[in-house]
User: Fold this.
Amino acid sequence: MLTIDNLFGANKTSPCVRQVYGVSGSGKSFMLNKALKTARKMPAFGKLHRFVIFDIKHDGYEDVLINDKKTKEYPVSDLDGVIKSLEKNRVTLIYPEMETASILLEDTIKHIFSVAQRVEDFSATFVLEESSTFIGSHPFSIPPQIKRFATQGRSLGLSLLLVNQRSVNNKWVDTQSQGITVFRLAIPDAELLKKRWGLNHEEIDLKLSEKKFSFAHYDLEKLSLTYYSPINDDKTPIRKQK
Ligand SMILES: Nc1ncnc2c1ncn2[C@@H]1O[C@H](COP(=O)(O)OP(=O)(O)O)[C@@H](O)[C@H]1O
Ligand SMILES: [Mg+2]
Assistant:
């Protein structure tokens, strides 16, 4: 069963990566935004837990930031901003420049690892939007820091969410994944779902089409598929669909 805890939280005994996909406008960012709003308030994540969102589209997450007069959080776009924000804020929203996004991604992950190694109670959830911008289908087309994150992250309390419009067609990433959350899918992904996990795309999509913004979760360890109602707001987050 998908919960805010296991969507964002690290688990020392299961893989560090979670994949989220669905076509543009299917509700991915909206759901993650509301769920992050809830998560940031949950003591279960620990005082030194950090939520980091790396969003090349600069769209859909500002609502997660605190917008009080006294404590205002701002999106950041360089390493200096990332480091400062991580130090004091629960949530760090990164709006990278297109030209330097890959470098900033690598530097940010390096920094998160170095903090995680130095500070015992530190843990983090890293949300990478438009992940196919950075990850290709070939095993060698994964940036070294993402590889490191996926393989060494869980022992340090780190988890990685790869969010994309299409399924990330990379078998290595699959082997590092705990589960996939799917919204409405592009037709060419149907074959892939079937080939990789034996999932019936037509059936899933038919069910998802009945209720706009609903989604399904496939647990890659338990091999179970569950459907969820659309998220309304940050007060009523993840609910199983009847
Ligand atoms: N659960 C929902 N309830 C109400 N409106 C939603 C919901 N999910 C998405 N929307 C609407 O659809 C738009 C597109 O959703 P979004 O999450 O940005 O799509 P994606 O990230 O998959 O491209 C949002 O701006 C919002 O207006
Ligand atoms: Mg989006």
Observations:
- The beta strands are 17-21, 49-54, 91-94, 123-128, 158-164, 177-182, 215-219, 224-228.
- The chain has one domain: 4-228.
